[in-house]
Amino acid sequence: MDPTPDANPESRIPPLHPQPRNHHEKKTILLACLLCLLAPQAAKAIPIPIEWGEHISRVQKLPQTEKFTAKVGDKVVHVDVGVRYKRFSVVWIPIWHYGEKEYVLYHSSLFGGTRYWHLTPKGVVALNEKLGCSLPQKPKIPFWSRWGVRLIVLLAIILLVRFAESSEKKEAAAATPANS
Protein backbone atom coordinates (compact mmCIF):
# COMPACT_ATOMS: atom_id res chain seq x y z
CA MET A 1 0.00 0.00 0.00
CA ASP A 2 1.36 3.33 -1.05
CA PRO A 3 0.74 6.27 1.25
CA THR A 4 -1.77 8.73 -0.16
CA PRO A 5 -0.13 11.96 -1.27
CA ASP A 6 -1.44 15.23 0.14
CA ALA A 7 -3.74 17.31 -2.04
CA ASN A 8 -1.06 20.00 -2.20
CA PRO A 9 2.48 18.50 -2.06
CA GLU A 10 4.09 21.98 -1.89
CA SER A 11 2.54 22.53 1.54
CA ARG A 12 5.03 20.03 3.02
CA ILE A 13 8.12 21.75 1.58
CA PRO A 14 9.56 24.51 3.75
CA PRO A 15 10.40 27.76 1.93
CA LEU A 16 13.95 27.91 0.58
CA HIS A 17 14.52 31.49 1.73
CA PRO A 18 12.67 32.20 4.97
CA GLN A 19 12.03 35.88 5.58
CA PRO A 20 13.91 37.56 8.47
CA ARG A 21 11.69 38.00 11.50
CA ASN A 22 12.83 41.44 12.64
CA HIS A 23 15.09 44.34 11.68
CA HIS A 24 18.02 43.00 13.76
CA GLU A 25 18.12 39.87 11.62
CA LYS A 26 18.00 41.99 8.47
CA LYS A 27 20.95 44.04 9.72
CA THR A 28 22.85 40.87 10.61
CA ILE A 29 22.26 39.39 7.16
CA LEU A 30 23.33 42.65 5.49
CA LEU A 31 26.47 42.79 7.63
CA ALA A 32 27.30 39.16 6.83
CA CYS A 33 26.92 39.88 3.10
CA LEU A 34 29.21 42.91 3.35
CA LEU A 35 31.82 40.90 5.23
CA CYS A 36 31.66 38.19 2.55
CA LEU A 37 32.38 40.82 -0.10
CA LEU A 38 35.46 41.93 1.84
CA ALA A 39 36.74 38.40 2.50
CA PRO A 40 38.95 38.01 -0.64
CA GLN A 41 40.81 41.22 0.22
CA ALA A 42 41.25 40.21 3.85
CA ALA A 43 42.73 36.87 2.78
CA LYS A 44 45.58 38.67 1.01
CA ALA A 45 46.24 41.22 3.75
CA ILE A 46 46.56 41.43 7.50
CA PRO A 47 43.71 39.72 9.38
CA ILE A 48 41.05 42.16 10.55
CA PRO A 49 40.03 41.74 14.21
CA ILE A 50 36.26 41.41 14.56
CA GLU A 51 34.48 40.97 17.88
CA TRP A 52 30.87 40.74 19.03
CA GLY A 53 29.07 39.95 22.23
CA GLU A 54 28.59 41.37 25.70
CA HIS A 55 30.41 44.47 26.82
CA ILE A 56 30.27 46.52 30.03
CA SER A 57 30.97 50.25 30.20
CA ARG A 58 31.39 52.03 33.52
CA VAL A 59 28.79 54.72 34.22
CA GLN A 60 29.46 55.40 37.91
CA LYS A 61 32.60 54.88 39.95
CA LEU A 62 31.60 53.85 43.47
CA PRO A 63 33.51 54.86 46.62
CA GLN A 64 36.09 52.32 47.70
CA THR A 65 34.35 51.41 50.93
CA GLU A 66 33.30 48.12 52.42
CA LYS A 67 29.70 48.73 51.29
CA PHE A 68 30.67 48.43 47.63
CA THR A 69 32.59 45.17 47.60
CA ALA A 70 31.86 41.64 46.48
CA LYS A 71 33.50 38.32 47.15
CA VAL A 72 35.10 36.70 44.10
CA GLY A 73 36.64 33.39 45.04
CA ASP A 74 38.89 34.03 48.03
CA LYS A 75 39.19 37.77 47.39
CA VAL A 76 36.99 40.70 48.33
CA VAL A 77 36.95 43.14 45.39
CA HIS A 78 35.66 46.65 44.75
CA VAL A 79 32.71 47.06 42.35
CA ASP A 80 31.47 49.88 40.11
CA VAL A 81 28.19 50.52 38.29
CA GLY A 82 28.17 49.75 34.59
CA VAL A 83 25.85 49.25 31.66
CA ARG A 84 25.87 45.78 30.11
CA TYR A 85 25.00 45.60 26.41
CA LYS A 86 25.99 43.79 23.24
CA ARG A 87 28.09 45.27 20.47
CA PHE A 88 29.76 44.43 17.17
CA SER A 89 33.24 45.87 16.56
CA VAL A 90 35.69 45.86 13.67
CA VAL A 91 39.31 46.73 14.46
CA TRP A 92 38.15 47.58 18.00
CA ILE A 93 35.82 50.29 16.67
CA PRO A 94 32.23 49.76 17.85
CA ILE A 95 30.05 49.61 14.75
CA TRP A 96 26.73 48.50 16.12
CA HIS A 97 25.16 48.24 19.59
CA TYR A 98 22.30 45.81 19.93
CA GLY A 99 20.23 43.98 22.52
CA GLU A 100 18.84 45.23 25.80
CA LYS A 101 20.85 47.41 28.13
CA GLU A 102 20.90 46.85 31.87
CA TYR A 103 22.68 48.21 34.93
CA VAL A 104 25.16 45.90 36.63
CA LEU A 105 27.60 46.02 39.50
CA TYR A 106 30.86 44.73 38.09
CA HIS A 107 34.49 44.04 38.80
CA SER A 108 37.06 43.74 36.05
CA SER A 109 40.60 42.44 36.38
CA LEU A 110 43.33 41.83 33.85
CA PHE A 111 43.64 38.09 34.40
CA GLY A 112 40.38 37.28 36.14
CA GLY A 113 38.05 38.65 33.47
CA THR A 114 34.90 40.57 34.29
CA ARG A 115 32.36 39.48 36.88
CA TYR A 116 29.01 41.23 37.14
CA TRP A 117 25.81 41.14 39.16
CA HIS A 118 22.46 42.42 37.87
CA LEU A 119 21.23 45.67 39.45
CA THR A 120 17.45 45.90 39.88
CA PRO A 121 15.49 49.14 39.37
CA LYS A 122 15.08 49.31 43.18
CA GLY A 123 18.86 49.02 43.50
CA VAL A 124 19.32 51.93 41.08
CA VAL A 125 16.95 54.08 43.17
CA ALA A 126 18.80 53.09 46.36
CA LEU A 127 22.18 54.02 44.82
CA ASN A 128 20.81 57.37 43.66
CA GLU A 129 19.56 58.12 47.19
CA LYS A 130 22.68 56.93 49.06
CA LEU A 131 25.28 58.48 46.75
CA GLY A 132 23.39 61.50 45.50
CA CYS A 133 24.12 60.47 41.91
CA SER A 134 21.59 60.63 39.11
CA LEU A 135 21.52 57.34 37.26
CA PRO A 136 18.51 57.40 34.92
CA GLN A 137 16.00 54.56 35.29
CA LYS A 138 16.65 53.52 31.69
CA PRO A 139 20.35 52.66 31.19
CA LYS A 140 22.27 54.52 28.50
CA ILE A 141 25.62 53.63 26.99
CA PRO A 142 28.18 56.36 27.82
CA PHE A 143 28.99 58.84 25.03
CA TRP A 144 32.61 57.72 24.59
CA SER A 145 31.58 54.07 24.29
CA ARG A 146 28.93 54.96 21.70
CA TRP A 147 30.71 57.59 19.57
CA GLY A 148 34.24 58.36 20.77
CA VAL A 149 36.35 56.05 18.64
CA ARG A 150 34.11 56.60 15.61
CA LEU A 151 34.62 60.37 15.88
CA ILE A 152 38.40 59.95 16.04
CA VAL A 153 38.37 57.70 12.95
CA LEU A 154 36.14 60.17 11.09
CA LEU A 155 38.46 63.05 12.03
CA ALA A 156 41.49 61.05 10.88
CA ILE A 157 39.82 60.33 7.51
CA ILE A 158 38.96 64.02 7.05
CA LEU A 159 42.54 65.03 7.86
CA LEU A 160 43.96 62.43 5.45
CA VAL A 161 41.69 63.64 2.63
CA ARG A 162 42.64 67.28 3.27
CA PHE A 163 46.33 66.38 3.38
CA ALA A 164 46.03 64.47 0.09
CA GLU A 165 44.18 67.40 -1.55
CA SER A 166 46.79 69.94 -0.39
CA SER A 167 49.62 67.70 -1.63
CA GLU A 168 47.97 67.42 -5.05
CA LYS A 169 47.56 71.22 -5.24
CA LYS A 170 51.22 71.76 -4.34
CA GLU A 171 52.33 69.22 -6.97
CA ALA A 172 50.08 70.85 -9.61
CA ALA A 173 51.41 74.30 -8.72
CA ALA A 174 55.01 73.09 -8.93
CA ALA A 175 54.40 71.42 -12.30
CA THR A 176 52.81 74.53 -13.84
CA PRO A 177 55.43 76.85 -15.39
CA ALA A 178 55.35 80.43 -14.16
CA ASN A 179 54.24 83.03 -16.74
CA SER A 180 56.55 86.02 -16.83
Any chance you could write out the topology, listing elements then pairs?
Blueprint: H1 23-44, E1 50-60, E2 69-72, E3 75-78, E4 80-90, E5 93-109, E6 113-118, H2 121-131, H3 143-175
Antiparallel strand pairs: 1-4, 2-3, 4-5, 5-6
State the gist of this model:
Helix content is 37%, strand content 29%. It has 180 residues and is of the alpha+beta class.
Any low-confidence stretches, pLDDT <50, length ≥5? 13-20
Q: Strand tally, please?
A: 6
Strand-pairing-aware structural class: alpha+beta
- Radius of gyration, CA atoms, in whole angstroms: 27 Å
Strand order, main sheet: write it out.
Answer: 1-4-5-6
- Average the pLDDT over all residues and give the rounded result: 78
Tally of individual helices: 3
* Share in β-strands: 25-35%
Shape: elongated
Assembly classification: single chain
The separation of the N and C termini measures: 104 Å
Question: Biggest β-sheet: count, sense, barrel?
Answer: 4 strands, antiparallel
Key structural traits:
3 helices, two-stranded antiparallel sheet, alpha+beta, about 180 residues, 4-stranded antiparallel beta sheet
Q: Can you characterise this structure?
A:
The chain is α+β, with helices and mostly antiparallel strands and 180 residues long. The protein has a domain at 48-172. It has three helices and six strands. A four-stranded antiparallel β-sheet has the order 1-4-5-6. Strands 2-3 form a two-stranded antiparallel sheet. The longest helix has 33 residues, at 143-175. The protein is elongated. The N and C termini lie far apart (104 Å). Mean pLDDT is 78; it is low at 13-20.
